[in-house]
Amino acid sequence: MRSVRARAALGATVVVALALVAAGLAALLVLRANLTDQAGLQAEVAARETAGQLALDVPYDRLETGDEEDHPVQVTDEDGRVVAVSKDLEAISGTGTDRVTPQPPPAAPEKGDDDGDRDDDDDDDGAGADPGRGEVSTDEPDFSNGTATVDGDRADYRFASVEATDSAGLTLTVHAGAPLAAEQRAVASVRAAMLAALPVVLLVVAGVTWLVTRRALRPVEDIRREMAAITASEDLSRRVPEPASRDEVARLARTTNETLTALESSVDRQRRFVADASHELRSPIASLRTQLEVGAAHPELLDVEGAVADTVRLQVLAADLLLLARLDAGERPGNARLELGALVREEVSQRTGDRIPVAVVVSAPEPGGLEVTGSRGQLARVIGNLLDNAQRHAVSSATVEVWAERGGAVVVVTDDGAGVPEAERTRIFERFVRLDDARARDDGGAGLGLAIARDVATRHGGRLTVAGAGERGARFELWLPGPR
After folding, report:
1. CB 344: neighbour CB atoms within 10 A?
2. Is-contact 42 71, C-beta < 8 A?
3. Which residues of 304-315 are buried (b: 16+ CB within 10 A; e: fewer)?
4. Nearest Cα residue to 334 out of 368, 377, 380, 369
């Protein structure tokens, strides 16, 4: 089944079917138990009535057992012999013995002289005594299920067994039954009603589930249809419809629209990036081609230094674009442990061509306090870009300070240049952004250095911010977390 509606309807129907079957079985068991208990109570009453007659020494052949068809009775003695049965009882099972013919009691032994003497003694001992009477046991009777055939009709019965003692001390057991036909008819009727109603209930459940699921999934289908249209048209400005409800489908629609917004922004940014990169590459390539064509035609006019400068600029720009492409692709930084103070000193020491000397101040309160984790090459690139920016704008001084702070290390690069206007302190980290559009490209660069620095810092779990450096200049602060 490929349809969610069909699977939901089938699943709901199966669950309801199992629940109804379980509930029906439980109801049938409870009903059967209650009716069986009622039959057992009726059998107990009949058994105690007969046991009461036996306790009063009513002769076996004169016992009143009531309606023999409704309450068949069997009386057995201590040895299991049948001494009395109800009228027309032809067969019985479930009482311990299947005999239905009363057996005569064992013959009394002949009395001799010794017996006569003993009788005399007994008469003397019991002279004037009350002959007494029997009793009926008050213990809980034993119950069992069985069958009985009365006057040719065989049926199921619930038997109760009650003990009675006559005045002679003989213990007898009365087995009286109550019919289970009413219980069986009631259970059969309820079972038939349940079986007849079950398909109807399941059809209703399946239909309602189908309709409810269809209504619930209608917004999902609208979302799917709109997404298909967006895919076909490649128009990322379109949005899927958002239901007015506050359920999961509405949240799905909102999340989808947020994803489309992020995707549209990413695509626009990528398009601008490609356009800006093409524009930036066009200038050095065109300049280099012009110089080479002039040199080919007039070797004496070839500007070798200019060609080399354009080549270097092209190489740096290509490296920046490649690094940005790797960062956008989600490249993870390395896991090398670096000492940030040593890395800063190394980067400053290699900058022999800077027009303004850079002062380095490293504050390490304890060994390892300036350690960070990441890619050495990328972090060195960040520091280099910050120093390039300081050299580009500084008037007379540039300073790099390094210290430990809040579970990490901080690098602060300051210069005494014109500073960054507060309104532009966010925009300068965008790609291909240069605040002084009038300055020469050779002096201003392509506007990728700070964008690369912030991207690298973010992917290392850190941050890069800019602020004013007092009355004049800019202050760039890089924070990186310590080793993890």
Report:
1. 26
2. yes
3. eeebebbeebbe
4. 377
- Specify which of 3-7, 160-164, 432-436, 445-449 reaches the highest per-range mean pLDDT: 160-164
What confidence score (pLDDT) does residue 108 get? Answer: 45
Q: pTM for the whole thing? A: 0.52
d(CA 412, CA 414): 6
Topology annotation, domain 333-481: Heat Shock Protein 90 (3.30.565)
Give me the pLDDT at residue 123, please.
47
Domain 236-331 has CATH 3.40.50.1110: no
pLDDT tens track for 438-452? 344 445 567 788 988
> 56 and 133 in contact (C-beta within 8 Å)?
yes
Query: Is residue 187 predicted with pLDDT exceeding 70?
Result: yes
Contacts (Cβ under 8 Å, ≥6 apart) of 464 = 382, 429, 450, 453, 454, 457, 458, 476, 477, 478
DSSP string, 200-235: HHHHHHHHHHHHHHHHHHHHHHHHHHHHHHHHHHT-
Helices 376-393 & 449-459 angle (0-180, nearest 10):
140
**Whole-number pLDDT of residue 118:** 43
For 301-355, the pLDDT digits (tens) are 777 887 888 788 888 888 888 888 888 777 788 888 899 999 999 999 998 888 8
Residue 85 DSSP symbol: E
Residue ranges with strand state E in 276-378: 336-339, 358-363, 371-374
**What counts of helices (H) and strands (E) characterise the chain?**
9, 14
Over residues 91-108, the mean pLDDT reads 81
**Domains of the chain by residue range:** 1-104+133-233, 236-331, 333-481
Please say whether the beta carbons of 455 and 331 come within 8 A: no
3 state SS for 250-275: HHHHHHHHHHHHHHHHHHHHHHHHHH
Looking only at the bridges linking them, the beta strands covering 73-76 and 82-85 are antiparallel
The Cα 409–Cα 364 span in angstroms is 10
Residue 462 has pLDDT above 60, yes or no: yes
